Amino acid sequence: MSRSAHPAGPRHADVLPEGHYTAPPTDLNALDPKVWAGTVTRNEDGVVSVGGIEVTRLAEEFGTPAYFLDEADFRARCRAWAAAFGKDADVFYAGKAFLSRAIVRWLKEEGLNLDVCSGGELATALAAGMPAERIAFHGNNKSVEEIERAVEAGVGRIVLDSFQEIVRVAHIAQRAGKRQRVQIRVTVGVEAHTHEFIATAHEDQKFGIALAGGQAAEAVRRALKLDGLELIGIHSHIGSQIFDMAGFEVSARRVVQLLAEVRDEHGVELPEIDLGGGLGIAYTSEDDPREPHEIAKSLTEIVTRECEAAGLRPPRISVEPGRAIVGPTAFTLYEVGTVKPLEGLRTYVSVDGGMSDNIRTALYDAEYSVALVSRTSEAAPMLSRVVGKHCESGDIVVKDAFLPADLAPGDLIAVPATGAYCRSMASNYNHALRPPVVAVADGEARVIVRRETEEDLLRLDVG
Ligand SMILES: *Cc1c(COP(=O)(O)O)cnc(C)c1O
After folding, report:
1. Residue 365 CA to chain centroid, in angstroms?
2. Which pLDDT value is given to residue 160?
3. Which is the closest atom of ligand 1 to the Cα of 276?
4. How far is the CA of 94 from the centre of ligand 1 (A)?
5. How far apart are CA 348 and CA 351, in angstroms?
6. Per-residue burial over 178-201, b = 16 or more CB atoms within 10 Å of its CB, e = otherwise
7. Pocket of ligand 1 (CB under 6 A)
8. Which residues belong to the active site?
């Protein structure tokens, strides 16, 4: 299968097979547990349910389009990550994948930490009672106001992204009479996506400070001199939707090399390294993601081995999965509006949402699966493209999928694995009302982010 190499760059897109669609599945009614949230099943009446509630009932009560999030699955994934890394490592959930106050509370209860990268995400985390010391603050251009709020709140770490920011954070912390714990984000020259990674000396992207040319070593030198900063470690994040651990191996080796240089030059062994997030999930049955315990074992072995080689005490590791925790826990439920067969090509299935609730297909050429969930069907498979209702021909939700040939307006279809980077990247394009997120558990459904209303739109539009 030919896979296009991602043009190593800032987009952090997914690498996808080119011009490819899967062969029709043998059973269109089957739900692959790899891509569907933990409690999703098809009941005897043919209707799919999540958390014990049928989607037909959910659609009636909450409308479509809507995201339904399996709370038990979310919590189970948090616990699996926490258990896999144990007490000698820290798991930070990357809030940008999807953040709400309920999510923050669950993270807190399940013992995870939280990454934020804006004032808004920080406000959400604090509003829901996440202890500040369990929050890490990221971003390549944090405003002075955001840094002040983070320092004031007492966040556990700020990840420094530029030379300007080293001075800026030090100054703000000192003025507040504090010593802020910080990490320095370095670019290690590894760009990893799905099954491939590219290792180079230089990286052409906006994040971090380059290891190449002694830049990162210089950043450490400066940070160690400033009273307002307590440098606790080095941070690296190499890509997204990664299945192959080889990129982490190169990245960890390069970071450990820097730790050894820092020890040699300053006599300081920095106590922590953060290897970032980017662990892949199954969007279709063809994807084969690793389990958290395998990832933990592999990352720990890599770091331990590299540290032994460099004669360093292994630092405390942290990781930042976003997609791998929340991605698989939700699906988007749509109602079919029109079914338009194009002779010899495919059938266009229009739903009541689109690129405003899932931009990933248009933005990254992302792949998704889809299933008819309000009933079963014995009809033949029909090559379909699920599209939205926006004024754009690129408004595609699922590029190539098989749906039953008797699909009709009024049927409910669901796209699994939409927990990450769908609601969080949702827009009001065409003045669409952003869909709600409904948490479902043990036969109960609860709105955690409500649907936008026309009043919401008009409130912002002050005339
Ligand atoms: C985006 C991001 C993550 C999370 O990425 P996922 O692909 O959702 O795991 C973690 N760390 C940093 C610094 C990021 O920018």
Report:
1. 16
2. 98
3. 11
4. 6
5. 10
6. eebbbbbbbbbbbbbbbbbbbbee
7. 94, 96-97, 115, 138, 237, 240, 276-279, 320-324, 420
8. 391
Q: Which domains does the chain have, with CATH numbers?
A: 41-70+327-460 (2.40.37.10), 138-321 (3.20.20.10)
Using the CB atoms, write b or e for 42-61: b if 16+ within 10 Å. Answer: beeeebbbbbebbbbebbee
How large is the average pLDDT for residues 329-352? 97
Q: Using CB atoms within 10 A of its CB, is residue 19 exposed (0-12), middle (13-18) or buried (19+)?
A: exposed
Ligand 1 center from residue 135 Cα (angstroms): 14
Residue pair 241/281 in contact (Cβ under 8 Å)? The answer is: yes
Taking CA atoms only, the protein residue closest to ligand 1 atom 10 is: 277
- CA of residue 107 to ligand 1 center, whole Å: 16
Select from 407, 414, 397, 388 the least CA-distant residue to 347.
Answer: 407
Query: What distances in angstroms separate CA 190 from CA 75, 332, 370, one per listed residue?
Result: 31, 33, 33
**Of the candidate ranges 99-103, 240-244, 324-328, 443-447, the one whose mean pLDDT is the lowest:** 240-244
Nearest atom within ligand 1 for CA of residue 240? 7
Both structure tokens of 375: 């009933």
Alpha-carbon torsion 385, 388, 393, 398, what sign?
negative
Residue 323 CA, closest ligand 1 atom number: 8
> CA 318 from chain center: how many Å?
16
Q: Distance, CA 379 to ligand 1 centroid (Å)?
A: 41
| Residue 364 marked in a binding site | yes
Query: Is 354 marked as binding a ligand?
Result: no
Pick the closest to residue 65 from 310, 389, 319 (CA basis): 389
Ligand 1 probe mutation, 15, 107, 140, 240, most atoms within 8 A of CB: 240
Mean pLDDT for 174-183 is: 98
**Is 290 annotated in some ligand binding site?**
no
Residue 321 in marked binding region: yes
For residue 168, which amino acid is it? R
**CA 241 to ligand 1 centroid distance, Å:** 10
Q: What is the pLDDT of residue 97?
A: 98
Model-level pTM?
Answer: 0.94
Q: Give, for 402, the enclosing helix (H) or strand (E).
A: strand 396-404
Alpha-carbon distances, residue 451 vs 67, 148, 206 (angstroms) = 10, 32, 34
* Rounded Cα–Cα distance for residues 354 and 361 (Å): 10
